[in-house]
Amino acid sequence: MRKFEFRLKSLQKAKLTQEKELKRDLAQIESRLEIQQRELLALEDAKASLTNQWQADMAKGLGAAAVRQFSISFDRLSELRDITIAEIDKIEAEKEACRQRLVALMSDLKGLETLENEQFESYLKETARESELEIGDFVSFRHKPAAPGRVI
Fold first, then answer.
1. Burial (0-12, 13-18, 19+ Cβ within 10 Å), 12
2. How far apart are CA 119 and CA 111, in angstroms?
3. Between 110 and 136, residue with greater pLDDT
4. CA quadruple 110, 116, 119, 123: dihedral sign
5. CA dist 86 to 29, 37, 89, 138, 146, Å?
6. Is the pLDDT of residue 123 over 70?
7. pTM, whole model, 2 decimals?
8. Residue 2 gets which letter from DSSP?
9. Calpha distance 23→131 (Å, rounded)
10. Which of 56-62's residues contact partners 24+ apart within 8 Å by CB, and which partners?
11. Measured distance CA(8)–CA(113) in Å, rounded
12. Confidence class of residue 23 from pLDDT cuts 50, 70 and 90?
């Protein structure tokens, strides 16, 4: 009796390997995104702190040099914030593309799994049919009446 073997097993293994790689890539992308989001929060906190300090200093009275320094610091924090937001948008687009590739790959794997199940069912039916034929041949041979003059 022959053993069941899925005909597309090598393709299925390759796709499973790709799935693991995509999941790893997605985790790395999410990690980078989290780092950028923490950096953005830190920049926003620094900007808020600088604004609060400026307001407190304004109540005391500021000189031109202090106003100039605040302006430079505030502008630099705003630029860094904009750069970080752009980087977050880029990483989110990369994450979405990776996620879509993963969904498509998982769909392919599901299709291969369904095909494997169908092939296995077909194998079981074929095996059962072969067994019935063997049993039928065996039974018909044993119970076949002997021809006159022949001994079985």
1. middle
2. 12
3. 110
4. negative
5. 15, 11, 5, 77, 92
6. yes
7. 0.71
8. P
9. 45
10. none
11. 10
12. very high
Vertex 89: Cα angle to 87 and 91 (nearest 5): 70
Cα–Cα–Cα angle for 30, 35, 40, rounded to 5 degrees: 120
Exposure letters 35-55 (e unless 16+ CB within 10 A, then b): ebeebbeebeeebeeeeeebe
64: left (phi over 0), alpha (psi -120 to 50) or beta: alpha
CB 59, CB 138: distance < 8 Å: no
* Gap between the Cα atoms of 131 and 137, Å rounded: 10
pLDDT band for 110, please (50, 70, 90 cuts): very high
Contacts of 47 (CB under 8 A, 6+ apart): 74, 77, 78, 81
Calpha distance 119→94 (Å, rounded): 37
- Which of 8, 2, 3, 1 is CA-nearest to residue 117? 8
What is the model's pLDDT at position 152? 54
Q: Which two tokens stand for residue 133?
A: 């034929």
The count of residues in the chain is 152
Hey, which bits of the chain come out as E strands? none
